[in-house]
Amino acid sequence: MADSNDECSGVGGCSKALTSKTINPNLLKINYAIRGPIMTRLIELQKEVAQGIPKPFDTIIRANVGDSQALGQKPLTFIRQMLALCTYPELFNSPEFPEDVKNRARRILNSFLASSVGSYTDSAGNETVRRDIAAFIERRDGFPADYRHVFFTAGATEAIEDILQLVLTSPEEKPAGIMIPIPQYPIYSALIAKHGAHQINYYLDEDNDWSLDLAELHRALDEARDHCTPRMLCVINPGNPTGQVLNVENMKEIIRFAHDNRLVLLADEVYQENVFRGKEWNSFRKVIMSMEAPYCHTELASCHSASKGCIGECGLRGGYMQLINFAQVVYDATAKLYSTKHPGSLGQVVIDIVVNPPVSGEPSHDTYMEEKKKIFDSLEQRAKLITMLFNSIEGISCRPITGALYALPRVFIPERAVDEAAVSDSPQPQP
Predict the structure, then answer these.
(1) Which pLDDT belongs to residue 2?
(2) How many angstroms separate the CA atoms of 177 and 185, rounded?
(3) Alpha carbon distance 233, 47 (integer Å)
(4) How many alpha carbons fall within 13 Å on the CB side of residue 337?
(5) Is residue 392 over pLDDT 80?
(6) Which of 92, 258, 290, 362 suits 117 as a labelling partner, its CA being 20 to 30 A distant?
(7) What is the pTM of this model?
(8) Where are the beta strands (DSSP E) in 269-395?
């Protein structure tokens, strides 16, 4: 018998335990735009095209999400060779694989239980992988990093949600206020709704290349205090979808603001390898560690991913989050949170390559760097092209893309169109 869509169709009253009145109300508030109604319609159209139903087009490009390989980007050879050896060790006998790939694969396999990627790993991630991540962060920032404060995540989305869970308030308190940039990456508003937190919008300054204006941060925070307990400030750098790279002075202003207002700072840094036009990118951790007290003690949670940059391994779900300057109780609570997880092994193999790539002198180094450069150059060229094309269209402007994968154009609507829309929206007299 088919399931009924009626919530209360049973004899003698409602037969459903879960209805629109009893289901978790937070789930009904979730709106994840890039996988919403437009995506649903796209899937329908793809099926119709595959069935031969006539359309004025024969292909559909999925531009709703930054899925590089779905749009034709080739995976890096070194990564796929590593995955092949780790998943099918019989290939170690093949002469087709360079020795440095085999050595790396043996090292990572030996760090898994029974030397198998099919076994469980530590809840926070394989210790070898976490140590490699910490070493990468230390090389990048010039300051020591503690691997015990690094946690493997299934991409950046899981990291963002885990960090959000750390700052939620108890049920008897006002909801936690989470400051997010507008324009934003929609996962933030979706997760805020999912966990019953309060979204605090702050608006980026488009005319100043989408920078963060300190006065705007204060405005947003002051207006929100009556509705929530502000707990966290989220910053996406390089920007998604705005394509900007923050300068150090702007980052210092943001850090002072977060510290002075007792806000945890969340730095979404998944596009740190996508930096164009000669811009210099700095991590928030590096800037915090270089500041004087008390700002060098600002609580920071940051995340990175194997899904973006020149890697583009979205489907393998590899990422990490790092915590610094938190009280010990926070690290202990995070360890408890991660004790409920079973992280995937292949994602850990990939993120380990991201932070520990082939080095000069190894057989795979030149090919790895050539492939990455080809991808990067293509991304930079397209960033310039799309900006130029948008700015060539009357009524559209677009700020230069200096980072990430996206362009966010401004559309100027003619006054006449606005006036006509106002007339059409006004109540019409009844006959």
Answers:
(1) 47
(2) 17
(3) 41
(4) 18
(5) yes
(6) 362
(7) 0.90
(8) 300-305, 319-324
What whole-number distance in Å separates Cα of residue 160 and Cα of residue 188?
A: 8
* Average pLDDT score, the chain: 92
Strand ranges across the sheet with 150-153: 150-153, 319-324, 300-305, 264-268, 229-236, 176-182, 198-203
Nearest-angstrom CA–CA distance, 302 and 268:
6
290 neighbors 141 (Cβ within 8 angstroms): no
Q: For 361-375, write each residue's pLDDT tens digit.
A: 999 999 999 999 999
pLDDT value of position 1 = 42
Give the pLDDT of residue 15.
81
DSSP letter, residue 18: S
- The secondary element (H helix, E strand) that includes residue 325 is none
For residue 299, give the amino acid letter. E
Segment 116-122 long-range contacts (CB within 8 Å, at least 24 positions apart): 117/86, 117/87, 117/345, 117/346, 117/349, 118/345, 119/345, 120/342, 121/152, 121/343, 121/345, 121/348
Q: Which residue's entry shows tokens 């049920």?
A: 171
Q: Give the SS3 label for residue 11.
A: coil
Beta bridge pairs of residue 397: 410
| Three-state DSSP state, 221 | helix
The per-residue pLDDT for 362 is 97
- Is 62 in a helix, a strand, or coil? coil
Q: And the tokens for 370?
A: 């050539």
Number of DSSP helices (H) and strands (E) in the chain, helices first: 14, 9
96 or 43, greater pLDDT = 96
The Cα–Cα gap between 369 and 346 comes to 22
**HEC sequence for 80-143:** HHHHHHHHCHHHHHCCCCCHHHHHHHHHHHHCCHHHCCCCCCCCCCCHHHHHHHHHHHHHHHCC
Sort strands 319-324 and 176-182 into parallel, antiparallel or unpaired: unpaired
Q: What is the C-alpha to C-alpha distance for residues 394 and 348, in angstroms, rounded to an integer?
A: 47
* Residues in the chain, overall count: 431
179, 200 Cβ separation under 8 angstroms = yes
From the CB of residue 327, how many other CB atoms can be counted at a distance below 10 Å?
Answer: 9
The Cα 351–Cα 320 span in angstroms is 8
Look-up of token digits 């991540």: 133
Asked whether the predicted pLDDT for residue 3 surpasses 90, the reply is no
d(CA 76, CA 370): 10
The candidate with the shortest Cα–Cα distance to 287, out of 277, 278, 300, 274, is 300
Contact in structure between 133 and 271 (CB atoms under 8 Å): no
